[in-house]
Amino acid sequence: MTSAGAGKSVVAVCRCPDYEPGRVRCQVERCLELLGGAEKFIGPGQKILIKPNLIVPAPTEQPAQTHREVIIAMAQAVKDRGAKPMVGDSPAWGNIRGCLAAMGAIEPLEKMGVEIVQLNRPVVCNIDGARVRLSRYALEADAIINLPKFKAHQQLVATFAVKNMFGCVVGKEKPYWHFARGKSERRFCRLLIEIYKKLSPSLNLIDGIVAMQGQGPIRGQPYPLGFLIAGTEPIACEVVCGRLIGIEAGELPMVRTAEKMGFGQSRWDEIEIRGDDFGPVVRKDFQRAQLTPLRFSLPRIFKSIAKQMLLLAGNAVKKVSVNRLTRRYVW
Questions:
Q1: Strands 271-275 and 115-118, how do they pair?
Q2: What's the rounded Cα separation, in Å, for the pair 242 and 206?
């Protein structure tokens, strides 16, 4: 499916029915080619941060995180071009090694020589009039490849490209910003967009092979969508992802805010689709989340911090149910 036009944002849409490693690798490479070739995003010798969506130590059967095979495929693509892949995140619950271990990703990544980093080492940045602490790993990488998970979201309807970069905010400062900016949808989304702009990923590749529907971003159910979606312009990616499940651009708070800011391309006639035709298979049965307030209360933040400390204490991950830990707290 190709819709040509000068000045349009290109979004690659590639069918991928499951996480068979060879198939995922093939479709990741195809996405890169459809966007003009991997050399546009990966240079020899560059240190490239691969930023998946890691949120809670959970197996791959629970589609809360970017799937192991998508992370591995992108890391291999980076290595094959002579660059140095580094996988990093600052999960809401636990730490990056705990999240990767739960999905069986530590061993294959380390065998490839991929560095795994917790996105800490904060640097204070002035973003949208606020002092936001971003990880030095993200700020100092030669390039960032953003690997979000395709999810329904009980505060933002659905999340695709932009919000995943919020994971570069260090540690438990993320719930603080839900408190400080969450009273206003526009102010919160504007902060997320400005963080995205500050970090400026060179590529977004969204794992929609098995999406999460319902009460995302943690407690939703698997939804076999069967697509990888990739592009350099995040709002165009948001619009295309929404269209895949029958959500129009104007229903997404992130897109509405971007339009008011004059950021990105949100009109369908401004987007060029390359790859596979999804028009006949728009998934209107995708279950949306029941919406809850964006703003976190101070008691909620304190409880979140306490439970994070439990997870980080020795064997807490094994002793405490993920569902119990997260049933009242969303990211």
A1: unpaired
A2: 12
302-306-309-313 Cα dihedral, nearest 10 degrees: 170
| Cβ-contact 138, 51 below 8 angstroms | yes
Tens of pLDDT along 260-279? 999 999 999 999 999 998 87
- Name the amino acid, one letter, at 161: A
Half-sphere exposure of 173 (CA within 13 A, CB side): 18
Q: Are 57 and 317 in contact (CB under 8 A)?
A: yes
How many C-beta atoms lie closer than 10 Å to residue 279's C-beta? Answer: 9
pLDDT bracket for residue 3 (50, 70, 90)? very low
pLDDT at 304 exceeding the cut of 70: no
Residue type for position 295:
R
Q: Which of 172, 165, 174 is nearest to 199 (CA)?
A: 165
Residue 280: pLDDT over 70: no
Angstrom distance (rounded) from CA 99 to CA 93: 8
Using a 10 angstrom Cβ sphere, with 0-12 exposed, 13-18 middle and 19 or more buried, the burial of residue 315 is exposed
**Between β-strands 130-135 and 122-127, what pairing exists: parallel, antiparallel or unpaired?**
antiparallel
Tens of pLDDT, residues 68-122 = 999 999 999 999 999 999 999 999 889 999 999 999 999 999 999 999 999 999 9
The single residue listed with the structure tokens 């994971």 is 167
- Distance between CA atoms of residues 85 and 190, nearest Å: 29
Tell me what pLDDT residue 307 has: 55
d(CA 197, CA 237): 15
What residue spans of the chain are helical by DSSP H?
Answer: 21-34, 68-80, 96-102, 106-111, 136-140, 173-181, 185-199, 234-244, 253-261, 298-312, 316-319, 322-326
Domain 9-323 sits in CATH 3.40.50.300: no
**Cβ 7 vs Cβ 230: under 8 Å:** no
pLDDT-based confidence at residue 281 (cuts at 50, 70, 90) = low
Q: Where are the domains of the chain?
A: 9-323
Do 8 and 220 meet the contact criterion of CB atoms below 8 Å apart?
A: no
